[in-house]
Amino acid sequence: GYKDLIDTLIANHPNWTFTLFYTRLDWEEVIQNEGHSDTRTNPLNLIPDSSKYPEDWRCEVCQDKRYDNGTWLCASSKAIRHQMDPRNILNEDNIFQFAELKYTEGAQTVEGIKSLTEGSFLEGDEIAEALLQAGKNANLDAYFVTSRLIQEQGRRGTALSRGYEYNGTIVYNPFNVNATGNSSEEILQNAAQYAYNQGWDSLEKALIGGIDFVKNGYINVGQNTLYLQKFDVVAQGTSLYKHQYMQNLLAPQSEASNMKSIYEASNTVDASLNFIVPLYENMPEEVSE
Question: What does pTM read for this prediction?
Answer without folding.
Answer: 0.90
